[in-house]
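User: Is it possible to get a 3D structure for a protein together with its bound compound? The compound here is nicotinamide-adenine-dinucleotide. I've pasted both below.
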Amino acid sequence: VTKQIGVGIVGAGAIAAAHAGAARGHEGAQLVAVYDIAPERARAACAQWNVAKAAASLQELIGDDAVDAVIVCTPPASHADAAIAALDAGKHVLCEKPLALDVAEAMAMVQAAERSSGFLACASARMRCNPAPQAARRLIDGGELGDVYHVRFSSWRLRLRPGHHYAPEAAWFLNRSLAGGGVIIDVGVYQIDAALWMLGDPAVVSVTAQLRRFTEVPPPPGVVQDVEDHAVIMLQCEGGKSAVVETSWVSNMAPPDSAIVLGTKAGLRLDPLTKITARQVTAGEHDPMLEGMRNGAGEVVYFRAAQEQLFPYPEFSAGNPSQVTTQFLDGVAAGVQPQTSGPEALQVTRIIDAAYRSAKESRSVALAEAPAGEAISR
Ligand SMILES: NC(=O)c1ccc[n+]([C@@H]2O[C@H](COP(=O)([O-])OP(=O)(O)OC[C@H]3O[C@@H](n4cnc5c(N)ncnc54)[C@H](O)[C@@H]3O)[C@@H](O)[C@H]2O)c1
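Assistant: Yes, that's possible. Here is the predicted structure of the complex:
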């Protein structure tokens, strides 16, 4: 019988419950300790999840020999401290997204992982772990799309600002110094992570962003918001590749979210997963509203979009939030780096920093302008 992975959770709030559920349901893992800065929350979580130890401090949790892996579920301002302490104690770490408040913190975390025997992974892989993106990536890896050159992810919420329309007790979501930013940090981080992954991690040349706060829908009295509600980000990548990420907490737009991947042989829509290719049709088959096109030989030809739905249901954005935990525990058990790796999450952090700088300065920001280790004032 192989030893079970002892899991410790730091921060026993909303998302910790999803991680706890996955750890408890994983046959190779056991939840052994919980720490929260609010001791009553740790105790309540232990009672609910049937965990033996409510640690009295972070040190007590990461100093516990029964803990092999630590899942950091605090607001972003305390991700780096907790993750670095755990890595330095030789533990594996799954850190909630965003990895860190800024590039300097993210660098320090990646360096801690490099000097440690443990894995560092970030839960920004949550969108990648859904079945449709996994299937999309298999098609990409199998060459079925040809050269993948553009990804566009759009996620619109009508009225779903955290700390306001839901989770009213978690007003930290709207506070830049605790959260690191707004909807980019909350939702855009998943889209950027998945976009780079689908594009095959190209070098990112520049980032251009426009941000907006939806002041027409203010937060409740007493709640201060200094972060964005709406973001449009464009990544210019090497090799003629690009990504556009759009996301809002508050907008006058209805779901569904949309996600498309363009390749030179085929395109994909992800919700539900559908493969699109151009099929040449005969004159009799063509839509009479469409003009014929001339091919290279000067003949008039007609094309129709051949759409092959590969998944029966839309699940791209509504995947199970704890799949990322399961793949982390599977990776730890197998000795394989779980997603999102520290260096990849650092790259996502660089892009986010550059997006904030681009919006602030109303210009395109070269990623090389944001050297590793430089903290950027937002
Ligand atoms: N709520 C969601 O739907 C959701 C989804 C995905 C990811 N996340 C991410 O998970 C993290 C936590 O979000 P949440 O919604 O669970 O927040 P939350 O406010 O519900 O819970 C955070 C918990 O951390 C505790 N805490 C705060 N500072 C701490 C510290 N220094 N040490 C130990 N405990 C501390 C708080 O007491 C609280 O119990 C964030 O990074 C967020 O971006 C949240």
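The chain is about 30% helix and 25% strand. The mean pLDDT is 92.
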